Amino acid sequence: MFIKKLSLFMKKKTIVTNDISSSKRDATRKGISLSISILSPIILLVVFEVMLRVFGYGVNMDLFSDYKLDNRFLIMNPDVSKKYFTNAEDATTGLAEIFRKEKTPDTFRAFVLGASTGMGFPYTSNGSFSRWLKYRLMNEYPDKEIEIINLSLTAVNSYAALDFSKQLIDYAPDVVLVYLGHNEYYGALGVGSTSKLGNNIRLVRLLTNLRELRIVQLINNINQKANTNDDDSVVSENLMIEMAENTDIAWGSDEYHMGIEQFRSNMDEICQILSNENIPTIISTLVSNEKSLKPFISDSSSNELSAEYYYHLATENYSNGDFNLAKDQFVKAKELDLLRYRAPEEMNDIIQKLSDHYPGIFVADSREMFEVRSEYGILGDDMLMDHVHPYLFGQGLISESFYQVLKDEEIIPGSFGDRMTFPELLEEMPLTTVDSLKGIYLMDLLLKEWPFNRTDISEPNLSSLEANLANRVVYDAGYWYDAMGELSSYYQSRGDWSNALKVAEASMLAFPYEESSYAESYQMSLKNNNLEKAEFHLHKAFLLNPAVDKARDLFSLNMDIDKIESATYYLDFLLLNDKGNSEAYSLMKEKLNQINTLKLTLAENPDDVDLINQIASLFFQLNYKDVTIKYLEMSLRKDPNNSPAQELLEQAEALPNFYN
Q1: Mean pLDDT: which of 199-208, 252-261, 405-414 is highest?
Q2: Are 402 and 433 in contact (CB under 8 A)?
Q3: 3-state helix, strand, coil in the chain (%, to 5)
Q4: What are the residues facing 176 on neighbouring strands?
């Protein structure tokens, strides 16, 4: 009986086991089938994506690409902005500044994140605050290679800046400079723009990144062609018109707060990324025209909501001399303006607080710099050309605000030499008349259009060569390079060496890796009898391409401007690289050592006329006129009856200058 029951139990167990195994097999088959169903479309999409890339469809949207003319350099990818614009035809391009793939040990590298103000609009190129800053730092640190790569793009906002910040950390920046905020509503992906993808910040970031896929680019192109009106041949010349969709964004409304939150969230993440990578980051406060620009669009439902009402009150109080109240009311009018082309005050508050939350994040208070230089602290058309774009002086001020933070926080290794003060920068910055007029002409065109609709702007007077060249650059930005060549020839033909030098240095800033641009600046500096600048430019050319002929001239220049340490450096280079003249160089080296010894003694005995005469005599023996005269005049100031100095001065004045 037991055996029969056991046998029956084993049969039942076998049946159950078989049923379980069968169920598992069925479940496995269903799982595989389901996985295949799910994965098949994904695999097909991956294959299709690979095929599109293999056959060259679509564009690469990485931040940087190889510079086609020289593979040692990188350049901002001209297609990168297509990630942010729903209409590819609206996508803007930047300043196309190149930088080395391999960063050298003596390079200081900065990246700039911004929009049209960052680009220097309407002047662009050398008018941008980044070029002002670069020119100053080049003079401050002549032995360093100063790279300031401006990644600003017209009509973008913090979405693009965030995307850029994630990528640029791989390119060894020493600092990142940020000027952002005015485009949060109507810039690409802004909540009030025609180029938006929604109001969910994380979803917008995801969808933006998906645009790098060639499949997504294909779908976008098909959709764009389907929605294009072939009969509409009118193309807007003004992105302000093209990008603005919702022109009524009330202060405190949902869309208003969406713009604020968009800026806060993106700036927070930018700071977090860069702070975690220990990359110092300087963020500037924003400036807006308060006094000289009426509100674009005003709510007429009540005085409390009316931008025009507060603007009228501000104007009256300003006229009556109540400037503090007028300031508050001008700002209130700007805040209530329904057309949000000027950043709300809350964005400056966000900027000011970022440095409190993230190590290595600093604030450059450009707004304060503008206010202290504006009458009664109220920003108007003496500083700003339109609603947010500064005149050239204002671009210089923004550069000064960044410069002061770089200096105060010691972000650049080594001490600041104060070789160029801000007033000196204003005087020496190589901006030509063509650059200045081009900005004015371009701004005049903008102000005639919506939302300014100015009718009081006259046509430009094109009677001068500069005006004609500027007008051509307005309509063909690429012509700037030819315009500089024509302008240089014109000034040189007139013997106007000062302006010819500005043109040469302007080209030098635009082409920092071309030896010829430094050579031209060197020659124009000599024509101006500016030996300090001549030495600076020839030194830069030498760093690009060390050569014996440059070293000889640099040795002589440094002798004539009494920079013995630098002269010794070039003399040592000649001793190593010009063996045929080593005997003469050795004799010079002996005299340099004597001069150095005498100068050290003179530092302890500054009134010793005999020491001064000895130094002058040694320079005279080496045939260096200017420095010989410098010491003889010093000697005669201390002792006017010093006959040895008087006699040697007569002989020194007969010496030729090596550069004449």
Answers
A1: 252-261
A2: no
A3: 60, 5, 35
A4: 111, 281
Q: How many angstroms separate the CA atoms of 351 and 366, rounded? A: 12
Residue linked to tokens 């959709």: 223
pLDDT band at 400 (very low <50, low <70, confident <90, very high): very high
- What percentage of residues in the chain have a pLDDT greater than 90? 80
d(C-alpha 469, C-alpha 433), whole Å: 10
Say if residues 425 and 401 touch (Cβ distance below 8 Å). no
Determine the Cα–Cα distance for residues 222 and 217; give it in Å rounded to an integer: 9
How many other β-carbons are positioned within 10 Å of the β-carbon of residue 516?
11
- CA 244 – CA 193 distance, rounded (Å): 5
Buried b (16+ CB within 10 A) or exposed e, 213-233: bbbebeebeeeeeeeeeeeee
**Segment (H or E) for 149:** strand 145-150
- Kindly report the CA angle at 506 between 505 and 511, in degrees rounded to 5? 90
Q: Is the pLDDT score of 158 beyond 90?
A: yes
Q: Distance between CA 589 and CA 553 in Å, rounded?
A: 16
Question: Are 183 and 341 in contact, with CB atoms under 8 Å apart?
Answer: no
What is the token pair recorded at 169? 């950390």
pLDDT in tens, 205-259: 998 999 899 888 888 888 777 665 544 433 334 778 888 899 999 999 999 999 9
What does the DSSP assignment read for 264-295?
Answer: HHHHHHHHHHHHHTT--EEEE------SS---
Query: For residue 502, how many C-alpha atoms fall within 13 Å in the half-sphere facing its CB?
Result: 19
Q: Which amino acid is at 6?
A: L
Q: Which of helix, strand or coil describes residue 112?
A: strand
Tokens for 507, please give them.
Answer: 């080209």
505 in Cβ contact with 521 (< 8 Å)? yes
φ, ψ at 384 (rounded to 5°): -125, 135
What separation in angstroms does the CA of 386 have from each of 92, 159, 452? 21, 25, 9
DSSP state of 459: P
Query: Which among 460, 466, 464 is positioned nearest to 447, based on CA atoms?
Result: 460
SS3 labels along 62-78: CCEEECCCCCCEEEECC
Q: What is the pLDDT of residues 297-326, one digit of tens each?
A: 999 999 999 999 999 999 999 999 999 999
Q: Please identify which residue in the block is written with the tokens 């007033």.
A: 423
527: Cα separation from own chain's centroid:
31
Of the candidates 658, 550, 506, the residue with the CA atom closest to the CA atom of residue 521: 506
Q: Quote the CA–CA distance of 150 and 94 in Å, as a whole number.
A: 8
Cα distance between residue 294 and residue 113, in whole Å: 29
How far apart, in Å, are the Cα atoms of 251 and each of 188, 255, 332, 408? 21, 9, 10, 37
Radius of gyration of the chain (CA): 33
Cβ-contact 267, 351 below 8 angstroms: yes
Which two three-digit tokens encode residue 215? 């499949």
What does the alpha-carbon distance between residue 380 and residue 64 come to, in Å, rounded to a whole number?
38
- Work out the number of other CB atoms within 10 angstroms of the CB of residue 461: 8
Q: Which two tokens stand for residue 548?
A: 């014996």
Exposed / middle / buried, residue 181 (Cβ in 10 Å: 0-12, 13-18, 19+) = buried
Distance (Å, whole) CA 68 – CA 404? 36
Alpha carbon distance 449, 241 (integer Å): 9
Task: List 362's β-bridge partners, or say none.
Answer: 282
Q: 376 pLDDT exceeds 80?
A: yes
Cross-strand bridge partners of residue 148: 110
Render pLDDT for 266-275 as a digit per residue (tens, 0 to 9). 999 999 999 9
